[in-house]
Queue: 2 jobs
Job 1
Amino acid sequence: MDKGLLVVISGPSGAGKGTIYRNVIERAGMQRSVSVTTRAPRPGEVDGVDYFFKTEEQYQQMIAAGEFLETAAVYNNFYGTPKAPVFENIDNGRDVLFEVDVHGARSIKRKYPDAVAVFVMTPDFEVLEKRLRGRGTETEKSIRTRLGSAKNELSKYDLFDYIVFNDDIDEATESVLEIINAERCRVKNNIGTIKNLLK
Ligand code: 5GP
């Protein structure tokens, strides 16, 4: 490919996008984009691997220095995508995968219209609630907030290029891998290579 792909995975909290994201990174050999957040680490989360955990003051300094591709307030915390590593990767032909909320997906698509945006959803909202409860990491209030947001997020469907209904995590992962493979084969993503062959 001429350049790396920028692939965005988004969707409601609890739909399984985090698991799909990890599976795809492992199987498609993609670069991860590690986000910066002001929220507290959950048990087992590692700084620099799951997120870069920052104070609000540090975060504001990063905004002022123009270090983000996009930044959003999600559930009372800030989340943002650091810009530099993303462009370094795609300019060197490496595909980058993002897991961001719907606002993040919109900002990325605006700044980089060639980004491929995939929405991950459960088959219905009852399954979503069950998964959020099953996770055991959220308070009742946080579960209510996340469920309330889910419908609003789905209503932004026209921002997305693909939707994957996650009924079975292995099948959903497979679908995302197929999407990435198809995008890698698109003529418009291989013009440079084709022209070289024609020389
Ligand atoms: P969590 O706190 O559960 O890890 O993430 C909460 C929400 O923030 C999720 O919907 C997740 O996709 C989103 N998120 C994580 N990183 C980023 C980011 O860099 N930018 C944006 N806009 N959202 C993010």
Job 2
Amino acid sequence: MRLLVTGGAGFIGSEFVRMTLREHPDDSVTVLDRFTYAGNRRNLESVQDDPRFMLVEGTITSAETVTPLAEAADVIVNFAAESHVDRSLEAPGEFIQTDVYGTYVLLEAARQAGHERFVQVSTDEVYGDVSSGRSSESDRLLPRSPYSASKAGGEMLVFAYRASYGLNATITRGCNTFGHHQYPEKIIPLFITNAMDDRPLPLYGDGTAVRDYMHVDDHSRGIDVALRRGDGISEYNIGTGGEVSGVTVADTVLRLLDKPGSLKQFVQDRLGHDRRYALDSSNLAALGWAPRFDFETGMAETVRWYAENEDWWRPLKSGAFWEFYSRNYRPLIAR
Ligand code: TYD
């Protein structure tokens, strides 16, 4: 199979690329990545000399860029997205452009190229706040942030391309993901790298909102299973079933790094903060997928990775990072 992996220089996409080249020797991978702040050439260092790998810099919103790449591929796996809720609250436009319009450009290129498969990497956040029970794939999508609305918008286009043009397209809805190579803005890498520098860990509200945190290797394998064993026309939830609060994330990081609890800092809550996501992943489990990491093991591995790879993340926590950080947190911390 010849895969076009969009957003393949990002956190989850680059793990999917490494895994595909390692585990599927007959496959080739072309990555299309725009190298926004979250994309990083270093994430692909380990595969750059593989003759089955090619890297193209460009945006999924350009049909001119995407069309020839789609023609030279058998399947598109779309990881390319703006993904940080706090950034979407500040500036939604870029999210609509990339996550909705970009998905349209890819679907259209896949249709014109006559692809038999398309994979849209989506998120559990499209279900919105889940106060009780677990979301099933057939549940209504009730997104509540500009980020989750833009991902749901991308999904709507996938539904339309299935129904209107008969495009076989799989959607995966993964839960919160963590592990090696994650840009240090999401809670886990932010808290690890802040704690390493004795900086405060900012907890939104009372820190009791819960998420299901899944290791990136498990997420990547889940997408692989959905691609290769799925029916090609369904949505698949990918989650571990765990429920971990922000306070527990902070306490775990501080314990693993042997730092004091006084680093925890409660700040004003995020706008429209979803209190809970929870997934029923039995459809993917029925295809043979199960997570290999539990939260504790994944966290220990991740803390070790950030401790051993300061040269990877330190350059990312500079200029533009702190500009966003001070806009996002300063008025809150000063409360
Ligand atoms: P995040 O990592 O931004 O992922 P998402 O909002 O997409 O689920 O946030 C995970 C949880 O952690 C969420 O409940 C918000 C909370 N959080 C904090 O308390 N402080 C922070 O600095 C960040 C980034 C998140």
